[in-house]
Amino acid sequence: MGRQNVEDIYPLSPMQQGMLFHSLESPHSGVYFEQFNFTLHGQLNSPAFRQSWQQVVARHAVLRTSFLWENLESPLQVVSKQVTLPWVEQDWRELTPAEQQAQLQGFLQADVEKGFDLRRSPLMRCALFHLEEGKYQFVWSHHHSLMDGWCLTILTQEVLGCYEALTLGKAIALQTPQPYRSYIAWLQAQDRSQAEAFWRQNLAGFEAPTSLGIDRGAIGKPRSAATYLEHRISCSESVTDCLRDLSQTHH
């Protein structure tokens, strides 16, 4: 990335630092690689759909972000002024459904194996496959360090809003987004000693982690970061309601 294309440089959040560490520790594990696979029905204006995604990338600095860490005391994130969103588009209408499914599975696996070079933005890419008239398969991949689950709905709503405006030939008025740099600045302004005192008080008396009943392999030796685990715990209706209220209250 040339210096002329650099818009901003600032530190990482603690969460981003953790994700960067694990991504570099296990570069071929697919850890923090997010892949979404959708079937779209209806007549799609694919050029407008692609342009909609590009517009959203242009709106949000974090979607144009890459990371630097080599020979640095602390890693930094670099925002590019302009990036071109990687986009694959193929026509599979002449393939049988079984061939389409095989092609899709092969693509999804190759996409995960390709991963992302965290030093190069954008850490996001899309693919669109035309299956039949009025039916498409869309694959959206990105690195988790760019966004969390709360962002997904906001982002997809913006894409759909841009798409509708483009196909109808209308202008769209979107609120100027708050840059991620503002959150980093807020974090750096926090009193860490106050936060430490808070957690020491609230965790007083705990001397060991709470067991979640998940097998961690050999005693004292956690599983490799390359292993993704999912564990289901059944709660009573009252506990479930309390957890739901707690999560909604604290967002």
Can you give a write-up of this model?
The chain is an alpha+beta fold. The protein contains 7 helices and 7 strands, in the order E-H-E-H-E-E-E-H-E-E-H-H-H-H. The strands form 2 sheets. A 4-stranded mixed β-sheet has the order 2-7-6-5, with helices on one face. Helix 2 packs across helix 4. It is globular.
Give a quick precis of the structure.
The chain has 251 residues and is of the alpha+beta class. It has helices at residues 14-25, 46-59, 97-114, 149-168, 180-188, 192-202, 237-250, and strands at residues 6-11, 33-41, 65-68, 76-80, 87-91, 124-132, 135-143. The chain is built from seven helices and seven strands.
Distance between the ends: 36 Å
**Strand order of the biggest β-sheet:** 2-7-6-5
Give the beta-strand count: 7
Point out poorly predicted stretches.
218-226
pLDDT averaged over residues: 90
Helix content bin: 25-40%
Computed over alpha carbons, the radius of gyration is 22 Å
DSSP strand content: 15-25%
Shape: globular
Secondary-structure element sequence? EHEHEEEHEEHHHH
Helical run tally: 7
Main sheet record: 4 strands, mixed
